[in-house]
Amino acid sequence: VSFYKNCGFHYSHTVPDFFVLNYDHPIMENGKRLKDMVYFKKLLTVSYLVCREKRNVTLVSALIYLWEESVKASHHFLTKKDIKKLIPVVRNAIEMIENLIILYHTDKPVGFIGIERCKIEMLFIAPEYFGCGFGKNLVDIAIKDYKCSMVDVNEQNPKARSFYKHLGFIEFERSEMDEMGNPFPIIKMKLPE
């Protein structure tokens, strides 16, 4: 079970007594009798690097909507006013970031990562896909294909800090304010050398 979870599979459903009802003898594994069949599933995604020229109004608007929904579900320290104030900044970042990789599931963007000079500048997943391994998928691309080794995380977002720690990042610096001078402390993280 842990192997498949680490590969991005998630619990789907259980068929009770499957091995009891469908076999004429006990099925044993590691000294235990198998009883129920447990199914796991993995959502298939495709990622695309989108160059600046291809970042049209429709795409940028879809990504801003995704960002806003993700932030509402994960950045509980931000008010509605804070989020609205950040939209123009996010729009500019999406339009101008050096490398923008978008993750699609069933032809719909479900996450994106922005990379600039070996640093993850943004990573957002649609809330209905939290826990599906999509964030890890994008970070793996950033590390392997773009040699990313740094990321900044809001101190008030413990799930993000924990996520990056789980992927091997370590905290090395803290600032009281974010880059815009807002009172949202930032934790700088990096991969060990």
Strand order of the largest sheet: 5-6-7-8-9-11-10
Largest sheet: 7 strands, mixed
Shape: elongated
Strand content: 25-35%
Order of helices and strands: HEHEEEEHHEEEHEHEE
Question: What's the total helix number?
Answer: 6
Between the first and last Cα atoms, what is the distance in angstroms? 31 Å
Low-confidence stretches: none
Helix content: 25-40%
Number of strands: 11
Task: Name the average pLDDT.
Answer: 93
Instruction: Supply the helix-strand structural class.
Output: alpha+beta
Return Rg in Å: 20 Å
Structure summarized in a few sentences:
By secondary structure, the chain is an alpha+beta fold. The chain has helices at residues 2-6, 18-21, 57-74, 80-96, 134-146, 158-166, and strands at 10-15, 28-29, 32-33, 37-41, 46-49, 99-105, 108-116, 119-125, 150-154, 170-175, 186-190. α3 (57-74) crosses α4.
Model description:
This protein is of the alpha+beta class. The chain contains 6 helices and 11 strands. The strands form 3 sheets. The chain has a 7-stranded mixed β-sheet with strand order 5-6-7-8-9-11-10, with helices on both faces. α3 crosses α4. 18% of the residues are buried. The mean pLDDT is 93.
